[in-house]
Amino acid sequence: MERVKIEALPRIKESKGSKKKLREKGYVPAVIYGRKADAVSVFLSGQSLRKVLAASAGSNVILDLQIKGGNGSSVETVMIKDLHRHPVQKDLLLHVDFLRISLDEKLEVSVPLNFIGEPEGIKDGGVFQIQLREIAVKCLPSDIPNFIDVPVEEMKVGDVLTVASLNLPEGVELVEEADMIIASVITSQVEEVPAEAEDAGEAAEQPEKEGEE
Questions:
Q1: pLDDT tens, residue by residue, 21-58
Q2: Homologous superfamily of the 108-186 domain (CATH)
Q3: CA atoms 84, 10, 55, 60: torsion sign
């Protein structure tokens, strides 16, 4: 996985006014924590972070945060742990939680599934259902895939695809149970009513005429 450098500014007891000015300039407050070290509060460019997220198609991206301050600069290698967006303006980032990582230690992360093709069973009236859109895996940060391809063209009505059938990249281990269902092709729930049953139902609904026994 590609590593991206982003500049950050330290947050050192800033006033409400200075916070507001930085936000108006497009900076986003963030905190860095983990690996038994003290938490560090920073500001970083929201525009730069949005570009990174758009290019990586997700939050599983390795970032080298270059923190520049009065005492020189430092670098924190992190991944996004939590991303807070505005409830209405989804493109507006409100706060970011970064997790320190080691490039030599495996991580547990969620990776999106990329379903390829249309199941054959759809042509026979089946319905394609997706139970999982991402799965948990464990690997080194540099081995984290952007997504995992899931070919479904050969699935027929009644077929079930499980986690065990996934073709994982080298160095990537499954965390989910192997028998967990990813997707299936089921029969349509709409069933035709036999003509005899329809006739019987219509006859039962006909009111009796007066005088008839």
A1: 887 888 899 999 998 899 999 999 989 988 888 877 66
A2: Ribosomal protein L25, C-terminal domain (2.170.120.20)
A3: negative
